Amino acid sequence: MGILTFLIPISLFMGGVGLVAFFWALKKGQFDDPQGDANRILTKDYDDRPKQ
Amino acid sequence: MTLAQRIDRGPEDTGLGAPSACPACVAAPSAERLAQMAGPQDARLMLSVPMAHCAACISTVEQALADVPGVRSARMNLTLKRVSVDADPALEAAPLIAALKGAGYEAHELDAGLLSATETDKQGRDLLMRLGVAGFSMMNVMLLSVAVWSGAEDATRDMFHWISAAIALPTVVFAGQPFFKSAWASLRVGRLGMDVPISLALILASAISVFETMHSGHHAYFDAAVMLAFFLLAGRYLDHRTRAVARSAAEELAALEVPRATVVREGEEVAVAISEIAVGELVRVRPGGRMPVDGVIVEGTSELDRSLLTGESLPVWAGPDTVVSAGEINLTGPLTLRVTAAGKDSSLHRMADLVAVAEAAKTRYTSLAERAARAYSPLVHLLSFSAFGFWMWKTGGDLRYAVNISAAVLIITCPCALGLAVPAVVTAASGKLFRKGLLIKDGTALERLAEVDTVVFDKTGTLTLGVPELTNLGDHPRQAAEVAMALAGASAHPLAQSLVQAGRAAGLHPAQVSDLREVPGYGVEGQWRGCRVRLGRAGWCAAEALPVTATYLCTGEGSPRAFTFADRLRPGAAEAVAALQAQGKDIRLISGDAEGAVADLAGRLGIRHWTAGALPAEKAAEVAALTAAGHKVLMVGDGLNDTAALTAADVSISPATALDAARTASDIVLLGQDMAPIADATRIARQSTRRIRENFSISALYNVVAVPLALVGLATPLAAALAMSLSSISVTLNALRLK
Q: What residue in B sits closest to A20 (Cα-Cα)?
């Protein structure tokens, strides 16, 4: 059972990292245009300089 | 956008509403934003580009805009089908729209000032944030719950419950806020909304779980509480997004009404707000401008386009003493009017009053979701309280057991699936319609559209484009046509423009005509091979007027030639009418235009019931009569004369080119030129209403199975979790079946 003292904090921490990453993406507007982003990877225009 | 507005918007851009990891990041504006703020002279233009749909569209649109001088950058948002342009302040939307038209995309200007609220979409991000938090804790709590369900005991179980509590309680407080707020709001006005049982279940589940954990109980409902929050927030977010997309594009298309007018005061021209114009003042209206007031012409001759006001497709001659109404468009020459009625008394406002009357007469539609909630909420509370009472009596006052059971009943019956049942379907359906070029402005519009059995069309601007098309170019010798083209090239009149286009398409080149001069209200004249040539009204060219729309050419040799025009049919109009007829709908055509034009169009489209020369009030009355006879009416129209009828109908559609007032009055906006999607819309609407009903049955079925278990005290947290997730997933999948 001692292993739980490591495993539970680790799993919570990893989940927390995911949550922070989600907040970051949300704040950067990455969910503002999901359809456009899906299509933009098909064009060559943005290969060298990702357009903000 | 002004600097002040830019700064005002700051907190939304940086997402201050969120618990930021680094408060300093928020306090200090980024270098990028500082740079933006330093350049307050930037103009920000927003255009709606409804036909964009692919990767190539993005590059074409952005490239076309970037090539316009003065544009700094353009960024297309494909999800909202909208492009935002950073440009010099001097740049107007017109050249951008022209550039996009050249690239093959139609575009409409959006009001950037109004849009700032939805662009960053604070509310949507807020919901998404809460959804993310609920999702995170749902997964973690579920991990611990599975361990408990699979046999963790005693101290281990208690520890798992405590950790779950530490995750779930803050989550419920944070993620549950939208429900608590709306439940409180509805309780204060003495109603039982859907959010009351939801909030009660969230609070009761958390409270009882904490109590059980403290007393080393076997069952804790932390997972149920966060799962509930997660699924319900998902429904709420879908609902919000559907509405945000529609609102941003439909209601914020820049207003076409003129807010200002040019008034002549003491010999000088001054721009004055329309509300400040007094009766008796002189107002100047340039060619291409819209009449701001009712009045009488005192100076100048021109032609007037009345189609938006009356549905007449023919331009009308106007000279001194002609009476004009607000909303008409001046076509060829500058006019000076003496104001006879302004503001509240003008015909524009009388039209608005007509709309208000129609609005008041209309019965409010109760959506399926509202009806479900009305039946559901009292039933759930009743069940839960009677379970509590029964077990108190049965166990002889075991409060803990009775509360446990009543909480289990609330959690299991909690309308997880019900909260998703409508938004999931509406999102799927409106997404489908949006891709076809239809914007659903109102969530219940689909339900109302599903019941429609009668469709009423307007003619000018709706079934037709309101753009004249030359019909008899082939009847004229090449030379005559080329002279006509040269003359027409000197005018901005719609007939002249159409003649030039038709000539160019046929490969003709304008003849050498010199001394071109436009005589406002009459036509164009010039010198060709030493003779005077004229193109214009019949009387001016000494020609006999034909009963159709035509312009006349006299060259001095032979009799005058007539170039006849017909209003071009909107693409897809014939298909839409045929498809609607095939669906068994009764099609009617009510127009303000002359009988000949209406009869001709009705014949071409195979519409049996038609009315010509209808006044705005008559249109509304006819729609109201149909409604009173028990028909469900869909009105499709674009003009100011249609607004009252649009309001009176059960559900209404207007094209994006329609007047602002008409678009506001209608429930659905047709974004593209093509009209064929209307037939799809009625089909998809009927299908989606069926899906909504199916979803209600599915969630009812789960309750029928699970509620008895909860009532007799057999429901475990595992059963609650299973019932909740299975029903939510099945209603979502059912919604996605929409074809």
A: B21
